[in-house]
What does this fold into?
Amino acid sequence: MLVFKRELEIAFGDCDPAGIVYYPNYFRFFDTSTAGLFNKALGMKQIEWARHYEVLGIPMVDTGSRFKKPSRFGDVVTIETQVTACRKSSFDVTHKLFNGGDLSVEANETRVWVAADPEGGIRAVPLPAEVVVALGHKPRD
It folds into this structure.
């Protein structure tokens, strides 16, 4: 499986009055990491692969997390992101955030490959086999 790794310095604005990362900001960090994973896998930026595959994006439909150690303003953390399962149109993403070498946050997401619905709104569409392979998985039969 392809792993996308990035470092991030925690900014003052990421923190709550207690001086630790306000928990919704972790999901912002992870969303950026998921986009980075796809950019790396597909060799193009999100806006380009969305146009190329005629999709609107990869919205989250389920998420979960475990917070083990707080991160604070000025900490430099490492985020590792990978797709751990691919289905017809949905896939699972895991994130591990390390602070000072310690696992601080584990998170998981289920996302869906979506396109515009001709009748309005959005609809799930099958993940292209080449995308599945680029993420390090075997395509569905």
